[in-house]
Write a structure and sequence with these properties.
Blueprint: E1 8-11, E2 14-17, E3 31-36, E4 39-44, H1 50-60
Organism: Sphingobium boeckii
GO molecular function: DNA binding
InterPro entries: SpoVT-AbrB_dom (IPR007159), SpoVT-AbrB_sf (IPR037914)
Length: about 80
């Protein structure tokens, strides 16, 4: 895709840029904006899935000092319940 022009405008106390539909990411997409000199680079944030989270936990591994054991929970005797 070639070059597409747009304008900067005020939105409250911020500046905003309208992304024409030919290049828009879609609704409710989180983006990261990076300034490099006079340029702004807009990248969509990757969506994290449950599988990504599980893979990250496996990569981290178990705690070095092990997992603490809880004392057993003793339920009080409550007659009539």
């Amino acid at each position: 895709m070639g070059q597409i022009d747009s304008k900067v405008f005020r939105s409250g106390n911020s500046e905003a840029v309208r992304l024409p539909k030919e290049i828009a990411y879609g609704a409710d997409i989180d983006v990261t904006i990076t300034r490099v000199g006079d340029r702004l680079i807009i990248d969509p944030k990757p969506k994290k899935s449950l599988a990504d989270f599980i893979a990250l936990l496996r990569e981290i591994g178990p705690p070095e000092d092990g997992v603490q054991k809880r004392d057993p929970v003793e339920a009080p005797n409550r007659p009539g319940l």
